[in-house]
Design goal:
Length: about 325
């Protein structure tokens, strides 16, 4: 079953609560509050922290059913940096990916996945122009980022790339902030700007190597179809369609799907599928129900050594070493 809501109705369902037991934070301070997940939809919370020029939002919830959120035609303004740690969004990305978005939304709906724990950190800036104070020499930026920093938010910008290990460290520090009161707010503000700096540096390096044009953005319908292609890939990840088959299924030609997928998700369709398969392997390893050989076959590797090499490329550890970091007791055959 799927629940469809307008964005206004969806946001109205999230109501602030005073139960400080939901998270181990100072939720009673002004500008720092928790919204509990609607009980008829699922469990968990959203945690908002208002900082200077920044709204920090931590998503931590799980829905019982898939939720489709209808976005308004003009979308939302401002500049957003998002970091997906667990779960995924239909109009977003999979675990291990992060994004920068500005201007009107490129799609007209968002899908919140059912039964997956969503853990995501979002940093909202009121305007891209806030970055001006940090950018003394725009010549060091790619033309695309120059437009983003100097822009008025009217041109859509949406880029998805992998979250680096440096970003992961800062995200963990945000989620496990050890401080209270004023010290905590200063600490979180500094960490938010650190994430923004790391993300912009990553994008600038990538764009210098491979310029990204904002002159001919994808239409909202194109983006919807590309998101549908992403959904089909993840739904049939063990037996995925070919690129031609996938393009026909979503009503695009293979060239537009190939170029558009990279523009929206920061990687190729089957590069995205590879990351998704590795995330499935990681989850199966954590569940400890299967041995490494069985998991390698499930995620599409006939040779365990090839699976180990792919897993190490993604997570920096062999599957066996990964399990050892998670504790003892995994029986390998």
């Amino acid at each position: 079953m799927t629940v469809t809501l307008t964005e206004i109705d969806y946001q109205d369902l999230w109501q602030p609560v005073t139960d400080e037991g939901l998270v181990k934070q100072d939720a009673h301070f002004l500008g720092d509050w928790i919204e509990q997940c609607p009980k008829n939809l699922g469990t968990g919370y959203r945690h908002w922290v208002e900082l200077r020029d920044i709204d920090l939002l931590i998503h931590d919830y799980r829905f019982q059913e898939a939720i489709f959120i209808q976005l308004p035609p003009d979308g939302a303004g401002g500049l957003e940096f998002g970091f997906q740690l667990q779960g995924g969004h239909y109009a977003s990305r999979c675990p291990g990916q992060s994004f920068v978005q500005s201007g009107p939304c490129m799609g007209n709906r968002v899908r919140e996945m059912a039964s997956e724990k969503i853990l995501q950190v979002d940093i909202h800036l009121a305007s891209a122009q806030i970055l001006h104070g940090f950018v003394s020499d725009t010549d060091t930026l790619s033309p695309t980022l120059q437009k983003l920093v100097a822009g008025d938010g009217s041109t859509p910008f949406h880029q998805v790339t992998q979250t680096t290990s440096s970003m992961q460290t800062v995200l963990s520090q945000i989620l496990h902030c050890p401080y209270q009161g004023m010290t905590r707010r200063m600490y979180l503000e500094g960490k938010c700007w650190e994430l923004v700096a790391l993300k912009l540096e990553q994008l600038n390096s990538l764009m210098m190597d491979r310029p990204v044009s904002l002159e001919n953005p994808l239409s909202a319908d194109d983006v919807d179809r590309i998101h549908m292609a992403r959904h089909l890939l993840t739904e049939h990840w063990q037996n995925p369609p070919s690129l031609m088959q996938l393009a026909r299924q979503v009503g695009l030609n293979d060239y537009k799907l190939k170029i558009g997928f990279r523009q929206v998700f920061g990687t190729t369709a089957f590069g995205y599928l590879w990351h998704y398969r590795m995330e499935q392997a990681r989850q199966l390893l954590l569940e400890r129900q299967l041995n490494i050989k069985e998991i390698s076959q499930i995620v599409g590797y006939s040779k365990q050594s090839n699976f180990a090499a792919a897993f190490r490329k993604k997570f920096g550890l062999n599957p066996k070493a990964f399990m050892q970091t998670q504790g003892k007791g995994f029986a390998e055959k």
